[in-house]
Write a structure and sequence with these properties.
By secondary structure, this protein is of the alpha+beta class. Helices cover about 35% and strands about 25% of the residues.
């Protein structure tokens, strides 16, 4: 499903060039559970951002389902993210003035899966907290809402 070919990512900081990733290659099959491990600053988040179409490599290719997402236009990258990728963000990124159900429903609705919002909340054990706002939830509950939001849209790739 995913073929990462010699990915390099460099950033500029003033006149200095910083290599966040230096020639990473990997293959990930459909249905495979993959963990990216490494010390702080090793490029884990950079790699996830590129797999999710939120950032582009400086060089190399990222093929998802045979399509080189590193060459897609901004519009096509937006479509790729909307249709194919579910994100579970480290800091949740929940909308404060929306309930748990509404936070999950926004993502589910992007792919016409509105009816999956309630199922996703049930699957993470939060069906009784569906009408609570993020400030009424514990950190663990907010994380589970974020997970429900990511899986409710039935993504091909969950990051």
């Amino acid at each position: 499903m995913i073929s990462i070919r010699n990915i390099v990512k460099k950033y500029r900081s003033g006149s200095e060039e910083i290599a966040a990733l230096g020639g990473i290659s990997a293959e990930i099959s459909a249905g495979e559970f993959t963990v990216i491990l490494g010390p702080s600053g090793s490029g884990k988040s950079t790699m996830l951002n590129m797999l999710g179409g939120m950032d582009r490599p400086t060089s190399g290719q990222i093929l998802v389902g045979g399509e080189d997402i590193s060459e897609l236009s901004e519009k096509k990258l937006t479509d790729y993210r909307r249709k194919n990728v579910g994100f579970v963000f480290q800091f949740y990124n929940l909308v404060d003035n929306l309930t748990a159900y509404e936070n999950v429903g926004i993502a589910a609705d992007l792919n016409g899966n509105t009816d999956k919002a309630a199922d996703a909340l049930r699957d993470v054990g939060l069906e009784k907290r569906r009408d609570n706002f993020p400030n009424q939830l514990s950190g663990g509950q907010m994380q589970r809402v974020a997970i429900a939001r990511a899986v409710a849209k039935s993504p091909k790739l969950l990051l």
